[in-house]
């Protein structure tokens, strides 16, 4: 790829925007780095472009940043549009990639890892956070151990509700059981599926066919 001279950062949190600005300036030494905090302002900047690179947050005050990906790529056909977000779920990941994003980086990755991934853009490596790359591969090479994990009916019920976004408290109410009982089921689910977070449990639920990602 050609040298990156013009960069657009779309991020509504000032501290995070400044951090991204610093990362980009240190790694890519661009001539110009523009920062905007809304979809509306980003659209104006894109129209006035061109840009060699855009870093786009998804959770913006006036909408979903994924709506910027396609318009950016249409105007800047040979440039990179990389999503920088805290969302590590498959719905946001694949929605961004379907829209045409060239990469997907997690802002809560350790700073050295984030910087390394961003630096990889210059070397032509796919700018994906390592954890996101693993999850992308899992979609095509699912872990067969999950099929062997035997969940009870109640454990499957609680996993399904949690994967749909309910808290343990509300899932317990929906199932007519106590919060402590529901928490116990979730503990069992985590142990059996070898996961540690709700996001990982949700991905497992999708793989097992308990939840439809669409």
**CATH structural fold name of the largest domain:** Rossmann fold
* CA-CA gap between termini: 34 Å
Under CATH at level 1, the class of the largest domain stands as: Alpha Beta
Indicate the low-confidence ranges by residue numbers: 144-148
Strands, total number: 7
Largest sheet: 5 strands, parallel
Q: Structural class from helices and strands? A: alpha/beta
What's the helix-strand series?
A: EHEHEEEHEHEHHHHHHH
Overall form: elongated
In CATH, the homologous superfamily of the largest domain goes by the name Response regulator
CATH architectural category of the largest domain:
3-Layer(aba) Sandwich
Q: Which range best describes the helical content: under 10%, 10-25%, 25-40%, 40-55%, 55-70% or over 70%?
A: 40-55%
**How many domains make up the 3D coordinates?**
2
Strand portion:
5-15%
Q: What is the mean pLDDT? A: 82
Rg on CA atoms, Å: 20 Å
Strand order of the largest sheet: 2-1-3-6-7
Please report the number of helical segments: 11
What does this molecule look like?
There is one protein chain. The chain has a 5-stranded parallel sheet, with helices on both faces. Strands 4-5 form a two-stranded antiparallel sheet. The protein has 11 helices and 7 strands. The protein folds into 2 domains: 6-139, Response regulator (Rossmann fold, 3-Layer(aba) Sandwich), CATH 3.40.50.2300; 145-207, Arc Repressor Mutant, subunit A (Orthogonal Bundle), CATH 1.10.10.10. The chain has helices at 14-28, 39-48, 69-75, 90-99, 111-123, 130-140, 145-148, 153-163, 168-175, 179-193, 198-207, and strands at 6-10, 32-36, 53-56, 59-60, 63-64, 80-85, 103-106. By secondary structure, it is an alpha/beta fold.
């Amino acid at each position: 790829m050609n040298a990156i001279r013009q960069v657009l950062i779309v991020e509504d949190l000032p501290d995070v925007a400044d951090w991204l600005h610093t990362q980009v300036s240190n790694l890519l030494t661009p001539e110009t780095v523009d920062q905007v905090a809304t979809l509306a302002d980003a659209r104006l900047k894109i129209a006035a472009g061109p840009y060699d690179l855009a870093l786009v947050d998804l959770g913006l005050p006036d909408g979903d940043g994924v709506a910027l990906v396609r318009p950016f790529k249409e105007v800047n056909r040979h440039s990179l549009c990389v999503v920088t977000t805290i969302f590590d779920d498959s719905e946001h990941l694949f929605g961004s990639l379907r829209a045409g994003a060239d990469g997907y980086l997690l802002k809560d990755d350790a700073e050295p890892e984030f910087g390394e991934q961003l630096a990889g853009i210059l070397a032509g490596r796919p700018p994906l956070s390592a954890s996101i790359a693993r999850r992308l591969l899992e979609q095509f090479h699912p872990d067969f151990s999950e099929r062997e994990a035997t969940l009870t009916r109640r454990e499957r019920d609680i996993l399904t509700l949690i994967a749909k976004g309910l808290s343990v408290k509300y899932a317990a109410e929906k199932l007519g059981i106590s919060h402590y009982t529901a928490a116990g089921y979730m503990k069992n689910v985590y142990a059996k599926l070898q996961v540690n977070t709700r996001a990982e449990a949700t991905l497992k639920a999708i793989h097992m066919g308990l939840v439809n990602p669409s």
